[in-house]
Amino acid sequence: MNNMRIKPHPHRPLHVGSTGSRVQKVEERLESLGYLKGAADDRFDAGTAKAVVDYKRDHGWTGKPQGVVGERMARSLKNITATQASPTNGNGGKNKTPSTLKGATYNVERDRKPKEVREWLGDFAKRQKLDFVQVQEINDYHKALENIPGYHLVTFPKSKDGGESGILVKDDLLAKNATYIQGEGGGWTTVRGGHAPPRAAPAVQLAGWLKVVSVHQPPSVDWKNGKPVGPENRVKTYASLSEKLLAFAKQQLKRNPDQALLIGGDWNEPASTQGKWSPGWIAQQAGMNTHGGVKTHGNGRIDWEMSKGCRVSNIKAGPTGGSDHNIVTFTVSRPKGKR
């Protein structure tokens, strides 16, 4: 008889029924963060599964998180700081969340090698100490972006555009309430003769006080005399997402007056554009401030932010990193009176 003992694979998922030292370490981490209600006992039971689900909901997992610990969950638990506990763990709201975040927006551009995208953006985010990055044109890069050490991707592959945009979030940053704003309008025919579906704009709450939205509006729509002009389907699609973004912004600001809102990305229009459905119109109607002006995509000035309830500063156009857009970095600060 072969009595050789098989060692558990280090990356094999943990689930209800799992036992051993890996389970013990996971439970100890969840307990220290306030998610596990009970002692760590090296047995993965229903209580452990619930703690895993609660953790995932607070840290950017979308859809219906499962009570299973895989590679992403293990990496997140390893990187998160001890002060970033659950806001519902009964500690009287004493969790520390940063009042200043460093962000960026970046249109990655299609038809690049996923490995190069992962390596360049991962290195840049680490060197610049970015807390989050609004990313666009990422349909082919979901797996690559998910594998950037220290970060996880919030996107929605089941949206009509298949997760064309997303938000790359640092693992140790509290992230919750992920959702998306779905535009309509039918989509449009691309220059290659294909069909581009209506765009969706992912949104997630970060650090307990900032709602971040990543946007990518259709190209080839301009404004003349305050009215949008361009191919009919592109105009309809642009207008639909603008209407949805405005409704989302008004709802967020009304329901959560103490929460800041940041909407940004590749608008394919500068902040100075005026007229119904333009980005400037959204900002004006929602009472938000615009932060455009830096040169990106040549001299386009089309990658920028609008905000309410926070201060956006240190806006800089960085390198392209192989894209046809510059990455734009900035700092977002919470007003002192709301800290």
What would a concise description of this structure say?
The protein is of the alpha+beta class and 339 residues long. The protein has 7 helices and 16 strands.
Descriptive notes:
By secondary structure, this protein is an alpha+beta fold. It has 2 domains: 21-79, Muramoyl-pentapeptide Carboxypeptidase, domain 1; 100-338, 4-Layer Sandwich (Deoxyribonuclease I, Chain A), CATH 3.60.10. Helices cover 25% and strands 25% of the residues. The chain has 7 helices and 16 strands. The chain has helices spanning 21-32, 46-58, 71-79, 114-128, 142-146, 232-255, 279-286; strands at residues 100-107, 132-136, 151-154, 165-170, 175-182, 188-189, 195-196, 200-206, 210-216, 222-224, 227-229, 260-266, 289-291, 303-308, 311-317, 328-333. The strands form 4 sheets. A 6-stranded mixed beta sheet has the order 3-4-2-1-16-15. Strands 5-8-9-12-14-13 form a 6-stranded mixed beta sheet. Helix 4 links the parallel strand 1 and strand 2 (132-136). It starts with 20 loop residues before the first helix and ends in a 6-residue tail after the last strand. Residues 1-8 and 81-96 have low confidence and may be disordered.
State the name of the first-level CATH class of the largest domain: Alpha Beta
CATH arch. level architecture of the largest domain? 4-Layer Sandwich
- What general form does the structure show? globular
Q: What string gives the helices and strands in order?
A: HHHEHEHEEEEEEEEEHEHEEEE
Number of distinct helices = 7
Strand order of the largest sheet: 3-4-2-1-16-15
Number of structurally distinct domains: 2
CATH fold-level assignment of the largest domain: Deoxyribonuclease I, Chain A
The CATH fourth-level homologous superfamily of the largest domain = Endonuclease/exonuclease/phosphatase
The CA-CA distance between the termini, in Å, is 66 Å
**Cα radius of gyration in angstroms:** 21 Å
Please give the share of residues in helix: 25-40%
Largest sheet: 6 strands, mixed
DSSP strand content: 15-25%
Give start-end ranges of low-pLDDT stretches.
1-8, 81-96
Structural class: alpha+beta
- Tally the beta strands: 16
Rounded mean pLDDT is 88
